[in-house]
Amino acid sequence: MPAVNIPGLQERERVQSDFLVLERSDKKTASGDPFAILTLGNSTGRIDTSPIWSDKLDWADGADRGKVVQAIGDIALYGRNGTAKRQLALSAPLRVIPENQVDVLSFLETVGDCAPIWDWMDKQRSAMQSRTLRSVVDLFFANDAFRVRFERTPGSPSSHHAKLGGLLLHTFEVASIARATARTTRANQDLVFAGAVLHDIGKVEAYEVAATGFSVTPCGLLLGHVVLGALMLERELAKLGSPICTEDQILELQHMILSHHGSLEFGSPVQPMTVEAEIVHWADEASAKASDMSDSIDDPTNFASGRETSDVRPWRVGRRVYRRAHGWD
What we know:
- With about 325 residues, the chain is of the alpha+beta class.
- The chain has helices at about 115-125, 130-140, 145-150, 165-185, 190-200, 205, 220, 225-240, 245-260, 275-300, and strands at about 15-30, 35-40, 45-50, 70-80, 85-90, 95, 205-210, 215.
- It has two domains: about 5-105, CATH 2.40.50.140; about 110-295, Hypothetical protein af1432.
- Helices cover about 35% and strands about 15% of the residues.
- It has a five-stranded mixed barrel with strand order 1-2-3-5-4.
- α4 (about 165-185) runs antiparallel to α5.
- The protein starts with 13 loop residues before the first strand and ends in a 31-residue tail after the last helix.
């Protein structure tokens, strides 16, 4: 059964499709009656069910987080004062599909075909003038096992680029922005590119992908992806029989990884102290913030009233956003 396009669902539209249960919230009314709300998703997005009240609670039997279910119902709007939210009002019991009959990971959001991104990344690696920097970058990006893990990792568990392939897309964006900035400002383009592609390698160990979606690993919680990235670089260099760069060069590359969030307040133990580190930091910001803005504008639940300006302040941007009605042809 093809995945239904969740962002395109309209009020009163009939839905019959398979979904992954991303969240299940079991609650009680003021009078003590139990009810449940499920967050269902597929590769296109997510949607909540309307409350499943106590008289029909058995409709959700077995529909636990990480299970795939077939849902039948209609799209309804819930809310008032122009802030109505789309929900899937079930009209029949959910059918839990046996795990051996589905590929659970196919229900997670994805950026799509990653081949063109890898082609660009590999061309940029091949064009690097510094053999030293190229050798360091190749420790990771010429390693097939690492590439598989990197392509699978999201850019974040729940905010910018939170999709399969999201980390690769985010890294491509950061590297593109950073290289263009370095060329314009006459910074070291090879060093900026190396810092850009290495800046988030720690997310491979900090995040994990499972049937329940994206989450943070124990080492991600205890150390964070910024520190993990610096440790991964040191670890890979230590495996080599002979050094490929000096201690000072290693230090500068680690500084670019450790400083890319800009300040302690946002997760970096140090602030950028080189031109190239500053460029990577702001390229990272540009990619993440543009993703937050685009996703907020593309989310129809933020525009339930149909106006050009959002009804709410999406949490990822903290302010109302504008969805233009005109074109620029």
